Amino acid sequence: MEREKIVAIVNDFLVNEFEVDGDEISNDANLKNTLGLDSLDYIDMVVVIESNFGVKLGEADFKKMVTFDDFYSTIENKIAEKNA
């Protein structure tokens, strides 16, 4: 899957499902500060990612993510690993 499609899908569900202001989403924005999600929201996000991309993110994956670019890259890498 192309990165542009991953970004579009992720941004769409963040805006529509998690009510994130789309203007605050940028590659270098801090993921946790921008999203302001609680632990239950992260569980919901894991489910949404799995249903959209067929990959699962764990707690360790989220700990490594600082920016939205990290978030997109993690999903992209998980998809590549799954398809390898």
Automatic annotation (TrEMBL):
PROSITE patterns attached to this UniProt entry: CARRIER (PS50075)
Signal peptide: none
Domain Carrier: 4-79
Family annotation (InterPro entries): ACP-like_sf, PP-bd_ACP
Domain of life according to the entry: Bacteria
Protein name: Acyl carrier protein
Record organism: Chryseobacterium artocarpi
